[in-house]
Design brief:
globular, mainly beta, twelve-stranded antiparallel sheet, 12 strands
Amino acid sequence: TLGGGRDGSLSGNGEGFDGRCSCNYAGGPSGDGYGLGDVAQMRLSYASGPIAAAVALEDGVNYGYTDSNFGVAGDIKFSGDSFGVELNAGIQNNPSPEDAWTVNAGAHFALADMGTISAAAGMGSGTGSADDYTKASAWASLNLSDAAHVEIGVNHVWNTQAPNTNGDVTGYGIGMYYTPVSQLTLGLEGSYSTSTTNGSATSAALVTIFSF
């Protein structure tokens, strides 16, 4: 399949807290994500059974990479009945001072009818001269009944290159969701994050989601 569009990046991993959290309002991941942010792209995708792969030509010039030329990203995943694995990477050209890049891996496991657990890890760098990072996250979704489930997630970013002003960031999130019918979901979400440079932040929200 050949497609084109904008928003998201093929370099963004779909596993762990960042990739799987519902996070409709509160409880979202904190710190650097696994991808290179929102970009415009042309993508070639292939899928056969449980295996899927894709490559993309991406341009982030309108999404914060003000000096950016084209970049490339690739993704390969296996999605079985009880587990799945995803590997991806990407690079965005930025002449000054350096290119942005990321490499990521993630996996999930089904717990029969109990729910799903997922974890991911990655490393990369932004376009600045001192913004290298390493990241890991974990997420679990547990079924409370046929209509209700709870999600719990945690992630941590090690901003490893001094004098990186972002500091290390740890984020926690929890959400409880009730779906009495397929068109309606009610939820209660909350999050807490703490940074070595920016202190801590807390948020909570009631969410109502209509699906038609």
